[in-house]
Amino acid sequence: MRKFTLTTALMMGTAMSTPVLAEGHLQIVEEPLELTIQMNHARYPVYDESWPVEQQASAWTGISLVDQTVGANMRTDENSGKTEALNLMLAGGNLPDIVGSSRLKDFVNQYGPEGAFVPLNDLIAEHAPNMQAYFDSRPEIASAISAADGNMYYIPYLPDGKYGRAYFIRYDWLDAVGMDVPNDVEELEAVLRAFKTQDPNGNGEADEIPFFARQWPELLRLVTLWDGRSSGSDTYHDFHVADGVVTHGYIGEGYREGIANIARWYEEGLIDAEVFTRGSSAREYLLSEDLGGMTHDWFASTSGYNRLSDSIDGFSFRAMVPPASISGARIEEHRRTPIKPDGWAISYTNEYPVETIKYFDFWFTEEGRRLANFGVEGEQYTMVDGAPKFTDEVLNSDSPVNAQLWAVGSQLQSRGYFQDYEYEKQWSNEVALEGIALYDEGDYLIDQFLGVAFTADEQAVYDRNWPSVRDYMLERQQQWILGNGDVNADWDDYMATLNDMGLQEVLEVMNSAYERQYN
């Protein structure tokens, strides 16, 4: 990335349009106003001015967004998001009024303090009462999105709801082997071994795969059964906070013991032999072929596989509470994050920052939040007893509900808004809702690490050391699980290598930033 300077050429991104505005409490400007926007996301590579949600927002507020996206066709992946497109936009000097993107946080927190983006704290306090009320109620969110200089430079997409993934197990297989839902790690091992040896699918072959995972890092969740940690957030391999100190799960004693036992389970055939290579098709294939016994995956999508009861007699794949660990702890490490690094920001070229922050605030009003979550009234939903309810056409469509909403400009993660979990609850089946209720009965969720914002010096230390440290951690854990080495015998050399590679320097800057940001 080249360093941003304020000598970058300005792009004038506003123009007047002609329709006369109807007055209303959501109206922001007396004369129609157009603001340009860059919006990048894997699900919608540009901002679509014809989206019904955009048209409704424009009619209510008087502000219309005009697409000025660059790099729309650049690749997107989990790590880079649309960072390449943002770099291209910045390098060209053609900053639109609003920049919305996945993986936006680090970008604006780097270039905002250099002048590329407008600090939002005072604008929110003076002109955005709905956002201010939200941040007053959730001060940890305001801290989490702030840059190292203490300013907020973007409004994030804020997911709603608590539960994401859970343990699912074949209840019909439990019946077949005459066992109850496992209560702790020892009982779980016994159940998995019974799945392996007692032919629960009844085909006369030893083809059952007791534990499988669509994403191989979900296998690492099992270290929590030995009091280890695999991540501190909904991002795999992330840091976590223990007793007020930022650390990493892959250097903990519980992790070491957990990896040793996962390796043993793998060797004994209790874990899918292809767990690192089978990929995203694992759940579909292993369940539809009546081969898979247990996994850790999303409530809504995983519970949907109970449709297989039409073709597999007695098929029942339902959630179970987390088994108790060797110390008796019962935790669910994964939960929905309250904040994403996606959202939108105001560029320094914007001539209407007050109007823009008011427009951002519109999406935190009752009407704006409903529009962002459910689409347009009369098209995607109707109001029933004072609450939005999706139409039968939406709920019964062959297209997933969330895909239908993206198509009309709703549920856009590159828009800063507060999600409403009720939107998802309406299309979750009974098995998913029963599982969520089961998890609600216990206190299984643990606090998440919400990230930090580095100074330039801290960022340099992190960038210099962490990528290679992380790669080495992942390389070794796969080797151990696959039987190429012994984690207990190798542990001292492993820790020494991590320290030689700069792990302690990374932890120092992580804790320095954490202390500054939250304490």
Helix-strand category:
alpha+beta
Spatial shape: globular
Residue stretches low in confidence (pLDDT < 50, at least 5 long) are: 1-22, 76-81
User: How far apart are the first and last residues' alpha carbons, in Å?
Assistant: 31 Å
What's the number of helices? 20
What is the total tally of β strands? 14
DSSP strand content: 5-15%
What is the overall pLDDT average? Answer: 92
Q: Helical percent range?
A: 25-40%
Largest sheet, in brief, is: 6 strands, mixed
- What Rg is obtained from the alpha carbons, in whole angstroms? 25 Å
At a glance:
The chain is an alpha+beta fold and 519 residues long. It has 20 helices and 14 strands.
Q: Which terms summarize this structure?
A:
four-stranded mixed sheet; disordered N terminus; alpha+beta; 519 residues
Can you give a write-up of this model?
It contains 20 helices and 14 strands. The chain is an alpha+beta fold and 519 residues long. The strands form 4 sheets. Strands 1, 2, 3, 4, 5 and 12 form a 6-stranded mixed sheet that branches. Strands 7-10-6-11 form a 4-stranded mixed sheet. A two-stranded antiparallel sheet has the order 8-9. A hairpin with a 2-residue loop joins strand 8 and strand 9. The two termini are 31 Å apart.
Provide the fold topology.
Layout: E1 14-16, E2 33-40, H1 52-61, E3 63-67, H2 83-92, E4 98-101, H3 105-111, H4 121-127, H5 129-137, H6 139-145, E5 155-156, E6 165-170, H7 171-177, H8 185-197, E7 209-211, E8 239-242, E9 245-248, H9 253-267, H10 282-288, E10 292-298, H11 299-303, E11 317-320, E12 343-346, H12 353-362, H13 366-374, E13 381-384, E14 387-390, H14 392-395, H15 401-408, H16 422-425, H17 430-440, H18 456-481, H19 487-500, H20 503-518
Parallel strand pairs: 2-3, 2-4, 7-10
Antiparallel strand pairs: 1-2, 4-12, 5-12, 6-10, 6-11, 8-9, 13-14
Helix pairs in contact: 5-6, 18-20
